[in-house]
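Internal tracking record. Fields below are filled automatically when a chain is submitted to the structure queue. Please do not edit lines marked as system-generated. If the sequence contains nonstandard residues, flag them in the REMARKS field before resubmitting.
Queue: standard
Priority: normal
Entity type: single polypeptide chain
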Amino acid sequence: MTISPPSTLVQEMSSMDSEKKYITIEELEKHNKPDDLWISVQGKVYNVTQWSKVHPGGEVALLNMGGQDVTDAFIAFHPSTIWRRLETFFNGYYIKDYKVSDVSKDYRKLASELVKAGMFENKAALLGFSWIQVAYLGHDSGHYQAMTTQGWNKMAGILIGNCITGISIAWWKWTHNAHHIACNSLDYDPDLQHLPMLAVSDTFFWSITSKFYERKLTFDRVAKFFISYQHLTYYPVMCVARVNLYLQTLLLLCSKRKIADRGLNILGTLIFWTWFPLLVSCLPNWTERVMFVLVSFCVCAIQHVQFTLNHFAGDTYLGPPKGTNWFEKQSGGTINISCYPWMDWFYGGLQFQLEHHLFPRLPRAQLRSISPLVKELCKKHNMPYRSLSFYEANVTTLKTLKSAALQARGLLWEAVNTHG
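SYSTEM-GENERATED OUTPUT FOLLOWS
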């Protein structure tokens, strides 16, 4: 038996509903500029124009999703306490005929169940003292997993990232959040934009424009040459990839770009470039000093390789991310690394790459437990759930790089034969 509410209550609810102001999705899409930035969460529209400039996750994340319904991404990146703050940006509008896809309904239901189960309450602990493990801790603090408050996570990120590894947490947040939002978009995801050394798709041969770096990714003769042999140079490049991270840190901190906590980031980076050279100088001769640095970089190459295995062979696309297909893009663009539970420490939890992308705030200790739920959801909606062994992932990545290399090589020889 169904109990109906009193008629007066029905009239009041109807009156309130009629007073709501509605806009269409098409109208929302017009507000996607830095000086006019709106988003929708669960059908309510928010003006985040001013907030984007001080957004803890960086301005890029909001700009990439501007003018869209971003409910799934918002759920993924924010704890429940942030919902109250979100209401301060409500501009009075609702989305007319707001609809939710079946996969989004299931994703939100799963997220709600994980919250109720208390899985987001557990925090990461120290797992090791090497750069690799420290970097994982820096990754955790950047996703606000390591400590209980935003402030302590910020300090942990600067200590771990800037002071210990020499890689700015400000640079990491700037690029990593953009990567999560625009997973495997060739022109929006900075983690795929490695010209002139690497290219995972022949789309880069057309010198596309990076929306992240706001510049053209020029595919010139130098890039053609390096990419023609990228499947052979891949591992050597990974051995010195850390040098690029140091360079990117310095370029960002010295740029005119607005950076949160610039002073603390600069101080932390100076601390690293004080203790690390002093440590190296303690070795007896230059041969041992050079070998010490090279070996430490080569060991870190294991981690750089892992990062690329998770995405280089995934599905790619051109264009901005869409908030309405959040789950689909994360599923298509990520590859998991299968391993035994006792090896979880080695991968820092990122072997469950899809689970991490869907729930970036979830502590790594919970990723294995939710893996069956994510796999079941992917099966239900006929979406890929790829989990390869470390060896298989390497083979697949090399095949992807070789395929692009052979295409680039064809262009190279054609250019040589044409121009002599």
